[in-house]
Amino acid sequence: MTDDALPLADATGLQRLLVLGANGPTGREVVQQALDRGHRVDALTRHPESFPLHHQRLRVVAGDATDPAVIDAAVAATDAVICTIGAAFTLKPVEVYSATARGVIVAMENHHRRRLIVVTSAGVRRSHHQSGIAQVVAYGLMRHVLGRTVYDDMVKMESVVTASALDWTIVHPPGLVSVPGHGYSVRADEIEGNLCARDDLARLLIDQLADDHFLRGIAAVATPGLTVGAGHMIRHEILKR
Ligand SMILES: NC(=O)c1ccc[n+]([C@@H]2O[C@H](COP(=O)([O-])OP(=O)(O)OC[C@H]3O[C@@H](n4cnc5c(N)ncnc54)[C@H](OP(=O)(O)O)[C@@H]3O)[C@@H](O)[C@H]2O)c1
């Protein structure tokens, strides 16, 4: 075994994580919670100057996640990768999810790293829990009109990830909100619930490092019973994008 193949995790299970999309609202939660739980964290962002967290076990890595050289160097220094990269809805083609996944997988294979946890969305396919006509129409508008290019690239990302030989988990949250969660629920493939608090999603993502229940599968996560007003959604989720 070369040095490069040696896992960096210590005997307590604490690991060195690479968080992609670390400067997004979910990524920041993942970084903070991972630090709180004793892990070492490498946080990749294109905008290190605006990254708000500081810690002696945190290293902020500047770069674009679709740059294979950046990703290769970042992966070499870590045990596991959590990807929360995101793109806003646009009518233009989107490639950031699939391009990131391709580079990460090549780098993880090169450096003999195994654990990859990626966030896409419950919206990539219609849930059996969406039954009423209004729900079906709203889903169709979101999936096939407003968010088509984003969701299509998430599907590509999922194809790339599932074709790899890594220990992957794909995480499907519904709508994300930055309000305090009260604990997540998780099921294989699908779960009832329209919202997930980002702190609950972050907890689930970090929990996956020590949980093989969803290995090579889809973890559908939600915060049960969570509701927020339309005003909150418009101010904090839609207008901020
Ligand atoms: N918002 C929702 O309701 C929702 C619902 C379901 C699933 N999701 C998914 O959940 C995840 C987290 O969503 P979120 O709303 O918390 O975060 P987000 O606003 O989508 O932000 C993710 C971060 O990705 C980073 N990023 C984008 N392109 C990058 C690139 N080429 N290289 C490096 N970083 C890049 C950006 O950080 P920098 O600009 O600093 O690099 C951005 O802050 C995403 O995968 C999203 O698609 C979101």
Describe the overall structure.
The chain is of the alpha/beta class. The chain has one domain: NAD(P)-binding Rossmann-like Domain (Rossmann fold, 3-Layer(aba) Sandwich), CATH 3.40.50.720. Helices cover 35% and strands 20% of the residues. The protein has an 8-stranded mixed β-sheet, with helices on both faces. The chain has a two-stranded parallel ribbon with strand order 7-9. Helix 1 crosses helix 6 and helix 3 packs parallel to helix 5. It binds NADP nicotinamide-adenine-dinucleotide phosphate. NADP nicotinamide-adenine-dinucleotide phosphate binds next to helix 1 and strand 7.
Give a short overview.
The protein has 241 residues and is of the alpha/beta class. The protein has helices at residues 25-36, 68-76, 96-110, 133-146, 148-162, 198-207, 230-238; strands at 16-20, 40-45, 58-62, 80-83, 115-119, 167-172, 175-177, 185-188, 195-197, 217-222.
Bound molecules: NADP nicotinamide-adenine-dinucleotide phosphate
Radius of gyration from the alpha-carbon trace, in angstroms:
17 Å
So what's the CATH class? Alpha Beta
**Count of individual helical segments:** 7
What is the secondary structure topology, with strand pairs?
Layout: E1 16-20, H1 25-36, E2 40-45, E3 58-62, H2 68-76, E4 80-83, H3 96-110, E5 115-119, H4 133-146, H5 148-162, E6 167-172, E7 175-177, E8 185-188, E9 195-197, H6 198-207, E10 217-222, H7 230-238
Parallel strand pairs: 1-2, 1-4, 2-3, 4-5, 5-6, 6-10, 7-9
Antiparallel strand pairs: 8-10
List keywords for this structure.
7 helices, globular, 241 residues, binds NADP nicotinamide-adenine-dinucleotide phosphate, single chain, Rossmann fold, two-stranded parallel ribbon, alpha/beta
